Amino acid sequence: MRRVLEGSHAVSHAVELARVKVISAYPITPQTHIVERLAELVADGVLDARFIRVESEHSAMAAVIGAASAGARSFTASSSHGLALMHEMLHWAAGARLPVVMAEVNRAMGPGWNIWADQTDSLSQRDTGWIQLYCEDVQEVLDTILIAYKLAERVSLPAMVVLDAFFLSHTYEPVEVPEQDEVDAFLPAWEPTEILDPADPHAFNQLASPEYYMEFRYKIQQAMEDALRAHDEIDAEFGRRFGRSYGAVHRIPCREGERAPLALVTTGSVTGTARVAQAALRQKGIGVDVVKLKLFRPFPHEEIRRVLGPYDRVIVLDRNISFGSGGIFASEIRAALALRGEQPAVYPFVAGLGGRDITPQTIESVVARALGDEPPSDILWEGLKL
Amino acid sequence: MSPVTFRSVRDLPPMSRSTDTMLWNRTGSWRFLRPRYQDKVAPCAEGCPAAEDIARIQILLGQGDFEAAWLRIREENPLPGVCGRVCYHPCETACNRGEYDDPVTVNSLERFLADHAWKLGLSPPPPEPAAGGGRVAVVGAGPAGLTAAYFLLRLGHEVDLFDAREEPGGLLRYGIPEYRLPLDALAWEVGLILNEGVRFHGNRRLGSDLTWDELSGYDAVFLAVGTWKPAPLGAEGEEHAQDGLTLLEAIRQGETPEVSGKVAVIGGGNTAMDVARSLLRLGAEPAVYYRRRLQDMPALPEEIQEAREEGIPFQTLLAPKRIEPLPQGGFRLVLTTMEILDEDEGGRPRAVPSGHPDVEVEVDAVVTAIGAGPSQGAPAEVTGEGLVAEGLHLKRIAPEGEWAARPPVLVGGDLVNDRKAVVTAIASGKEAALVIDTRLRGRDATSIWPSIRVGRKGGVSMNRYLSGDRAAQQDHVVRYDELNTIYFRFQERRERPRITLEERRTGFDEVKMRISASLALKESERCFHCGQCDQCDNCYLFCPDVSVLRDLRAGTREINYDYCKGCGVCVVECPRNAMILEEEPR
Could B17 and A202 be called an inter-chain contact, meaning their C-beta atoms sit closer than 8 Å? Predict the structure, then answer.
């Protein structure tokens, strides 16, 4: 059924469709609408789930960890400082191999206090062992929640569905909402293998001595590598069932069947803007292929090399920064490309921090800079008031 | 048992998860502090002169085992029905709950337990045979004498209980008015004592119907004949005044004294309150005159309050100076106006004439209730130098002169107690039984005294005396700040209901009504059970090592020292300080 939904509510409805059993969350702008709607659905009896109220995000994550340990499909949502407060528990969810799914609304970290879009919050959780999926529009947000559950449960790792503050969380878009029976067919009930069961007591997540700890880490890495393949399968299956699939890395060529001299790598809602800029540039005779990166963890090294390797020049547009290094996506992409001797020149642009608009003009500007005489650098700032 | 070994990644579960027990890992060896269950003394128990184990009694009450709770009281006090009505309840003054909201109404719960037993016709199991073997005379069948007789019998001695009056009970029977202590309630409880085999001999007044020759045939004598002799008023014309206790006795004998109209009641103790309130009930118009202030009155605050509620006027800072008969009948009572000095006079502030003009009132009668001296027949030695200390509420006639040849004579009750109260008389009786028992067994009573006291300041416990392992007893009295009050919640104190004021002014029905079992249970819930494990299971719930072992049938808890690491969380989370943490012996 086609409905006009706010991005946050698209998440809520996807959670409802996923027949989540336990929800625990603590409100934070711009995530609050997601759990508000879920709380209503639970209170109204529409969604047969337990909504556990907590005093902090740390406890919210602890609660869903507990629920998932007992075999319940669980959900939480957070953003920015709330996510940062969960940090310890994020490691725990992954280490415990629990397929919790979280909607993460990208919001800047303070200070200065800022509630607008910025990816540094989710990227700061890069090494916690969570699958990370970045979404372009509201439809993709809804679909990705469903994909995330299937993926998380297949590889026993938690997954984070990331959407930009306001550009996605608070924007209404027409969305195709799948029917419940179709979703049930795609996403059957979770059948956990490791579960808290009073009839079969074990101590869970207890001490792992140096003798064994490394092997447990290896298993997580293996699961991540499995997730890379599993994502593509599940994404393809989703496409067959619902007519939409996204890919871990998706190339949007300027002209079908051709390769432009320049690739522009984007994530999140900026990809939509890039599509507009791409069309405008084409009109001006400038060819740019847009490469949308959706899956950040596990990182699709091979696919990145396959898609970006043939280009002369690659722009990476980062709405985030790792201080002392630069844009985080750019850093990962350069690392992936470095495995091959011959590699494109990468232009790592940092733009749009703290919700500053990335407009088609911004994109035209970085394209012009990358095609001009400006040499590649470790970090390039765009739109900075110097 | 030994640790499980994994050889490769394939053997490992997805995350660290036990595959076998960890029982092989005796974490108790890591411990350097050792928690231990240790019951301590609740302040109420220390505050009770009869050393009732109140916290334990409240636990039993709260469990609904009213009979066990009642029997537990009777281990220390054979008169809970009496005390539950007339005690000045120092337990409530000591109650830790008083620092939280209000003390537990221990007194009304005590009465509830006794009334419950009375209503159901329960009788205590017969005393177990004890060695004893002595013959003891108890002279005076008031609360002290009854208590001494009760315990002596239980300790295996033969007891003859003498009293000057026809029936046993002393002041309880012939002094305290019906509206505070109904005769049937008293008779039931006294009956329980006598039925166990105490031989009661009424109408045997010491000095006339009972001689020291006869008493010398016993192995020991306990003398507790009370203080019934009126004290002189010290006012001109005092022969015109009537004695309050005599008046109360007449009423209690079923007579209706001819006292009517305006009556001045002189005094500020419980007897004065009893007299004034009894007179009111007989249709007279009593007024209380007292030489100090209201707050200096020795009467129980609730007695004063109830008298005032009933409309009895109180005139304070007035001391009787002269009683003049009036030609038309009645009397003029002249009173000196007094003032209070900032000086102590026997525990109360000193009162002296203020120099202001005298006050005169015309009354139909004057009744005195200003304290009394040793009853008729008591030997002169009981009043002073002739006594030596023997216990907390007990003295002994010095074995000198003619007394050297007689059996030991212990003296207790109002004859010796500074605070003349029913419960202190009961304490005297128990101490007398203990001292006589130890003496007859050829032991020194004073040596065991410290081990059987409850706390450092409390009374002596028969339970402790009878249970062999006295070294295990300890005298740590739990303070409020030693409780973990986070586990308690504010709850209003439930005062016992009373009959209507109209009923109180016109009849001798008992003022305080019986409370229901549900009310008693609710009120008992307020008790912190200071220092006593009530199986709340906080220790069990908090123990991270699953090292609290419960025996639910026996109602006991134990620490499994094989695994207890000594973290101490059980001790910290115990709401009532019934555990301690000690250094591990090395």
Answer: yes
